[in-house]
Design goal:
The complex is a heterodimer of chains A (325) and B (503). Helix content of chain A is 45%, strand content 18%. Chain A has two domains: 166 residues, D-Maltodextrin-Binding Protein, domain 2 (3-Layer(aba) Sandwich); 97 residues, Periplasmic binding protein-like II (D-Maltodextrin-Binding Protein, domain 2, 3-Layer(aba) Sandwich), CATH 3.40.190.10. In chain A, strand 6, helix 6 and strand 7 form a beta-alpha-beta unit. By secondary structure, chain B is an all-alpha fold. Chain B has one domain. Chain B contains 22 helices and two strands. Chain B has a two-stranded antiparallel sheet. In chain B, helix 2 crosses helix 17. Chain B is globular. Chains A and B meet through helix 2, helix 3, strand 7, helix 7 and helix 8 of A and helix 3, helix 6, helix 15 and helix 20 of B.
Chain lengths: 325, 503
Amino acid sequence: MHAGLFRMCLAVALAGLAAIANAQSWPTRTVRIVIPYAAGGGVDGAARLVANHLSQTLGQNFVVDAKPGGATVIGTNAVAHAAPDGYTLLFTGSSTMSVLPLVHPTALPFDPLKDFEPIGMVSRMPFFLVTSSSQPYRGLADLMADARAKPGQLAFASNGIGSMVHLGIARLTQSAAVDMIHVPYPGFAPALTDVVAGRVAMTMADLAPIKGQLDAGAVKPLAVSSAGRSHFLPDVPTLAEAGYPGTEFEIWLALFAPAGTPQPVIDTIGKAMRGYLGSPEAREAYGRLGHEADASDGPSVRQRIVNEQKAFAPVAAAAGLARKQ
Amino acid sequence: MELLSHLALGFGAALSLDNLFYCFVGVLLGTLIGVLPGIGPVATIAMLLPITYQMSDPTTALIMLAGIYYGAQYGGSTTAILVNLPGEISSVVTTLDGYQMARKGRPGPALAIAAIGSFFAGTVATLLIAGFAPPLAEVAFKFGPAEYFSLMVLGLIAAVVLAHGSIVKALAMVVLGLLIGMVGTDVNSGVARFSFDIPELTDGIDLAVVAMGIFGFGEIIANLEQRERREIFANKVGRLLPSMAEFKASIAPIVRGTALGSLLGILPGGGAVLSSFTSYAVEKKISKTPERFGHGAIEGVAGPEAANNAGAQTSFIPMLTLGIPTNAVMALMVAGMMIHNIQPGPQVMTSNPTLFWGLIASMWVGNLMLVILNLPLIGIWIKLLTVPYRVLYPAILLFCGVGAYSLNNNVFDVFMTIPFAILGYVFRKLDCEAAPLLLGLVLGKLMEEYLRRAMTISRGDWSVFVTRPLSAALLAMAVALLVIVFLPAIARKRSEAFAEEES
């Protein structure tokens, strides 16, 4: 009896050692960071900055693997079902984790909170509300007043039904009690074209797609969607300052690992990331993409997802997007 | 004149040793991937983009990437003519007559005219960009959803004209293309159609997958069925350069194709593809002997090849002047510029003149390199025809497979080529043409998107299509084209009726 119990304890202890040994020797080969977006876009750029830093700090190659498609479902699902050994990570953001579960027409094959362990935030993108420079509005209040005077006649553009922009503007119009038509586009570029031409009254986008038009004076920013003013355009009032408190939102990007990944691995990556993201070079590098580098940790990302899902559920329902469970 | 000083600045930058080298690398790579079926400029540029991050000079990076893009247009016609496999979607139309010319022992002239036409179009397009970029870019703004819809209607009518067999079959193929285009998430309602809960299908079926399946694999299956046919070509290869008559006959189509491509390339979304289809339709309609089309008419190669090159180059205009990418390749270029901290937009011309004019000048240099590369290489490309088919077709299969995978890093796209391969074989047996199907696929989705967007913005008012002048003009042209197409049939019926009365 004694001998058997002793042997069992020894076996368990050794198995535990093996797990620790595994975590200590990680990474021993290339780590894949999957992005559920097309290669060459803004998310790709943001992911590469982190990947490069991790490669230098942790001594193994961190490569970005683009798996676009299905409104980020394909890539995210691939990581959800990947082995939780720390060699497959996911880089995505609020669109997938907070908004998609609310608006996707069918049940998602993964659960953002249960299937993933957030490692840490990487960057945030404030969204700027812009209108054509040819429009007479001097501020957001003017635009809303015009919309109130002409219910159902002014339109706002979004980069897709159920996108963060759609829900964000829907929440704004609901809060301001105006009736505007929603015109979905397959991306920011076509939406901006129609906004500049004046066919559509306004849209919201992050800095990257609009900077060219802003610099040329073709569009003017009326508000920024974040809680505080953005240092990219410090003269632009926040939505709250413009008279619509409670409507702020931001799109963010974070690094995730499949649930079950050993905690030491997650801690190692998190520490390396936070060290980089707090630095001035990271701030500058992300600034060039129109992002704000952010070094928040995993638990705060998780809390953010929970908060956003709660905040946007009624907006999605009011916009007719909530899935009939 | 200011233009001359700008061009001087541009050529000064473009002719630096570094930029010349990378321009050459770009066009060589572009020609290569254009020739290889399946692998396209989008995948290649996406793969090479990270390398350009390391380059110190963004001008050099953009020159190389641009070279890949328009180089691929040159290369795409090579496989289209020699093995009936369009290397690029815009080369689909070249297969119609180019391949027939190859079958008749005249692949050399077809390849030569394609290269010469492309060079002419490239030169003219470069001059257009240099001289008229800002006003041309404004045209893109005038096109709202209503105008795009009317343009697509015009394009769809052109599809009917593309038919050189039975019009009913062509219509059926267009409708089939429209139906295939229905698969995917609808932009305007967010509903996923025909996706059967497969996430890959919610983005629709990629045009490249359909083209590879129908043109590539379908052709291979059909060819394997008739083993003896392949050997005939090698014996019948005639001269390598076009005859004087062929050359003279190509001049007008090249000019017309260039004009068409330059105009349509500016418009976002399928501009370059649409221009080659439209050019073919125009050439066929204008020709005094339309029955030659589909059997090796040189005009059917000259016009579309010039159009797709002009379209490819002018598609840079909205990106360079307004910062608006008109297709996936331009979107990647925008990304490349932003990584180097250059904001694409109206002020690039003034804040980064070396970049702007250097890129434009290098486009012409690249075109020159391409025509010098491609003309002598014709003899080598023709040797491809002598390769035993049992070696050639596995290579085609391999490249198409790699190309299909490279679209989305997903094996699903490779599997999707299979049903289209079977479909392609069936079409060949039933003597149905696939070109109208591709056109229907491209246009159907876009037409619906623009129609509904125009209606949303106008709040349900149908008159917006005829009250907006540009849209009304395009619709009028479509109606006129429809009448022209069916007038001979009507006139014949009438003369038959009169003849019966008299007798």
